[in-house]
Write a structure and sequence with these properties.
single chain, 597 residues, alpha+beta, Outer membrane lipoprotein wza fold like, wza like fold, elongated
Length: 597
């Protein structure tokens, strides 16, 4: 009955506002009589300019013009945003594959004060080994001499330079056993040598670099800031004694994860970063779109493999934009035979699937299988009711209710806007030199308005026969809808300022006035000019008593007849007549959109 109270409060305002003179000033006693939250609303609006009567009773065509103007403004904003996004997309450049690798490359995961070397570490000149024999406490530190050998006192001299670390340890132990039977040595690397490496070519910062022993070519390139803008990731030459000992393709590292190189770096080596042979970009439905470097003998198929293949959203077609501007469309052709040239671009068309959310609706009341149902977008009210088993024979579809979140939001926003107009006018009236007399009723009315709630009832046709004859009468469901089908009630409720309010047995053909007379007639303070009829489907109508004498309004079972009190007959307060349209608008919106839940 909460919404009925709100309607009552608003109708009291309407009945009084329609007979008022110009407003008087809001006195302090009246302000103090209001609830604290409403006092804050008045204070907030105290310095406002009040209401503009032209805005309150605005012509429909003027409101429509403003709405259309707002829509055009939004369209222009959307168009501007789309243009900006397209521009940024066109201007966006692909990254060269691997260009960000050295930004995050970490040469060692060990603390910098601890020795760290890989399994393929090669012993060389400058390394220092720690050797200890069983039964002794002291440790012997032995450096690898320039001739590549170490000299172990009382054992002898043995060459170890150029050997992998594990092989060198094994040879030293076998050499010791050959001198002293059953002698076993404990050997580890005490300190690695420094290496001086020359880096030239298309590196970001070529030069001579001093690195700790065991450093790889990745460590060298990281120290130099990576590959230069015009450098090759796939043609890196490792030279020793003026001869090429290996050619390195960093794609083996970046794509395959192969970190072991054929020949570790040694002091005096040179590394030359070459220039790329072919630069090709690939984008669209590909797993790793980027700018790739191809070798002369590699085809389109190799490029797709480097880009980790087609994505799940790719179409079975390709487009090649040649460096000359010629566009080639490939549909079902063998890609291994397609040769690409420097500067070509490959585009893979793709579709972006949208993950569909699950829409749900709650059905309750006189239905065979009430509960929460999921539905596909576009399903209608009566299609869902059929899936729920249909309504019961004892149901009253004329009183069916559909509640929607969006409708509740719109109702709330509209009501708050109109309520704020009312408060703004009352607040602005306080500075015009006259007073508004405080009554015990107006604070109560404002408090009712302040605490209004909005279930969001939406007009819908629940009669399946009518819908079958005109499918446009059916309502498309929205996510979160709530449907309630009431059981049949043969009562008509009469309430408000009547002698004996309550339920009356429905009688076909009886008018609203006859139901009121069955309730003892209207009370002494009843507002005969504004009586509310709330129909079972939620529609409401504010009518004058004189209409009942001239027309036989159809009163259906489950209807509510509400007779409000006239506030002007209770106590006198003085507000502006211009407020009548506001209160009337509030009353109609509450009565028609919310009704009795």
């Amino acid at each position: 009955m909460h919404n009925l109270k709100l309607t009552s409060a608003l109708l009291l305002l309407v009945s009084f506002f329609s007979n008022l003179l110009l407003s008087q000033d809001i006195n302090q006693d009246f302000l103090n009589s209001l609830p604290k939250s409403i006092q804050e609303d008045f204070l907030t609006n105290q310095n406002s300019d009040g209401l503009d009567a032209d805005n309150l009773i605005e012509r429909p065509d003027t409101r429509l013009s403003k709405i259309e103007s707002g829509i055009d403004s939004i369209k222009n904003q959307v168009k501007t945003i789309e243009t900006e996004l397209n521009r940024k997309e066109i201007e966006a450049e692909f990254q060269t594959f691997g260009s960000n690798f050295f930004d995050s490359y970490q040469s060692s995961f060990a603390p910098i004060n601890e020795l760290n070397f890989s399994a393929d570490y090669v012993i060389d000149v400058g390394d220092i080994l720690n050797i200890q024999s069983p039964g002794t406490i002291s440790k012997l530190k032995v450096a690898v001499a320039r001739d590549g050998s170490i000299n172990i006192p009382k054992i002898g001299q043995i060459t170890v330079a150029g050997m992998p670390y594990e092989d060198a340890i094994k040879n030293i132990k076998e050499f010791a056993k050959s001198k002293y039977l059953n002698m076993d040595l404990y050997i580890n690397l005490e300190q690695s040598r420094d290496m001086s490496i020359l880096l030239i070519g298309n590196a970001s910062k070529p030069g001579v670099y001093t690195l700790p022993g065991g450093s790889s070519i990745l460590s060298l390139l990281h120290a130099a800031g990576g590959i230069g803008e015009n450098g090759s990731y796939r043609t890196i030459l490792h030279k020793r004694n003026n001869e090429i000992i290996q050619e390195i393709d960093l794609y083996d590292v970046l794509i395959q994860g192969n970190l072991l190189f054929k020949s570790p770096l040694r002091s005096g080596d040179a590394v030359v970063v070459g220039a790329p042979e072919k630069i090709i970009s690939i984008s669209g439905g590909i797993n790793a779109p980027a700018i790739y470097e191809l070798k002369q003998n590699e085809s389109l198929e190799d490029l797709i493999n480097l880009a980790q293949g087609f994505s799940a959203s790719a179409y079975n077609s390709l487009q090649i934009v040649r460096a000359t501007g010629v566009v080639e469309q490939l549909d079902g052709q063998a890609i291994d035979s397609i040769t690409l040239n420097h500067g070509d671009s490959v585009k893979v068309p793709l579709f972006l699937p949208t993950n569909q959310k699950t829409y749900t609706v709650k059905v309750d009341g006189a239905i065979k299988s009430p509960g929460v149902y999921s539905f596909e977008y576009g399903e209608t009210l009566h299609q869902l009711l059929k899936r729920a088993g249909g309504i019961l024979d004892t149901a009253y579809p004329e009183g069916g209710a559909l509640y929607r979140k969006k409708a509740a939001k719109v109702q709330k926003e509209y009501f708050e806007k109109t309520y704020n107009q009312l408060i703004a006018f009352l607040a602005s009236s306080s500075g015009q030199g006259s007073g508004i007399s405080a009554t015990q009723n107006l604070p109560l009315i404002l408090a009712e308005l302040k605490n209004a709630s909005f279930p969001g009832r939406l007009a819908a046709e629940f009669n399946s026969v009518k819908v079958s004859k005109n499918l446009q009468e059916d309502t498309v469901l929205a996510d979160g809808d709530e449907i309630f089908i009431p059981y049949f009630s043969a009562d008509v409720f009469v309430t408000g300022d009547v002698i004996n309010p309550g339920g009356r047995k429905y009688m076909s053909g009886m008018t609203a006035m006859e139901y009121i007379e069955q309730s003892g007639g209207v009370g002494r303070f009843a507002d005969n000019q504004r009586i509310v009829i709330i129909r079972p489907n939620g529609d409401a109508e504010v009518v004058k008593k004189t209409l009942f004498l001239q027309a036989n309004l159809d009163i259906a079972p489950g209807s509510i007849i509400y007779v409000p009190r006239e506030i002007g007959k209770l106590q006198g307060i003085s507000l502006a007549a211009t407020l009548a349209p506001i209160a009337s608008s509030l009353a109609l919106s509450l009565a028609s959109l919310n009704s009795i839940k």
